Amino acid sequence: MLVTDSDGTAYPGSTITGEVQMFDTNNLKPGIIISAHESTLAAMAFDMTGTRIATASNKGTVIRIHSAIDGSRLFEFRRGVRRVATIYSLSFSPDSMFLAASSNTETIHIFRLIYQKEKSSEETSSWAGTFSRLLGDVAYYLPKQTSEVFTQDRAFATVHLQSAGMKTAIAMNIFDKTLKLFVAGYDGVVYIYEVNTNEGGECKQISQYLLFNFSQNSNNQQTVIANDRRNSLDESRQIYSSNVSRNESNTVSLSSKLTNEKKSDDQLYNTALQEQNFPGLPSPPTGDDE
Questions:
Q1: Order of strands, edge to edge, in the sheet holding 189-195?
Q2: Cα 282 from chain centroid (whole Å)
Q3: For 201, left (φ over 0), alpha (ψ -120 to 50), or beta?
């Protein structure tokens, strides 16, 4: 596991505990060591500025954000206490105000990064602030491990996937002045959700795209691996559907790709999309469009 930004690199510093070893790539020398977790690391991510690093351990319940400059702990979030989870991916929003975490459960959590001063101001004017202060008073008299549960922030927004257990990679970016969450699954589907940065809650799915990975089988054939039935919305709000059985698709021999009778990877990809009535990802701009 290795994460990098323009100024540094971070990697696990221990195979026993959750230490993060920073490395200064500009001066080519080791940096600080951050004691992020008691158990080994499962995921890490830098923010866009490279000044913050988010980490999750193999227990998957607590996610922490530290300063990449001095190693101080800035934020701590609890994904949940009901069950241990494996964190697959962490991602900051471009403005570093939100952090998303995907795991082997069906829920993706999005946390809002509120500085203590701003947080105190918001909580003071709400009943939640009163409740939070009461919990804090009670937590003072409880053992440390118990009190930490009360003082953690819950998810600001969530995404519920169709199934649990599938490995995912996530990213956040701003399009059309709104924050979008991108979820890429190992089933070849990319989901796009809109995050309500004011109210939070359940994120709205706005579109999805089917991708195809070509894999070589025992017969030296290249197989287009299809996915289960899915629905998707494109920009014109048309609904696309696909009834495709997993792995029931056409194959092409790798050894005969040079003959006129065989199709290229791009041709196979486009043909599969047409046959299954699924939108593909937009094509990148050509040199003539620049």
A1: 168-175, 178-185, 189-195, 204-210
A2: 21
A3: left
Question: Which tokens in the block code for residue 88?
Answer: 């697959």
How high is the pLDDT of residue 8? 86
The H or E element containing residue 171 is strand 168-175
Domains of the chain: 3-114+153-211 (2.130.10.10), 212-281 (no CATH)
Cα 157 from Cα 141, distance rounded (Å): 31
Residues 100-154: pLDDT tens digits? 999 999 999 999 998 655 454 444 444 455 544 444 444 444 444 433 433 456 8
Q: What is the dihedral of CA 158, 163, 164, 168, to 10 degrees?
A: -70
CA dihedral 6, 65, 195, 86 (to 10 degrees): 100
237 vs 72: CA distance, rounded Å: 46
Q: What stretch of H or E contains 74? A: strand 73-78
User: Distance of CA 206 to CAs 124, 195, 283, Å?
Assistant: 35, 10, 19
Q: Which token pair is 250?
A: 């056409």
Radius of gyration of the chain (CA): 23
The yes-or-no verdict on residue 279 having pLDDT over 80 is: no
Q: What is the DSSP letter of 130?
A: H
Residue 55 vs residue 124, higher pLDDT = 55
* pTM score: 0.66
Using CA atoms, how far apart are residues 209 and 73, in angstroms rounded to an integer? 38
Q: Give the torsion sign (CA, 147, 150, 153, 158).
A: positive
Please give the mean pLDDT across all residues of the chain.
73
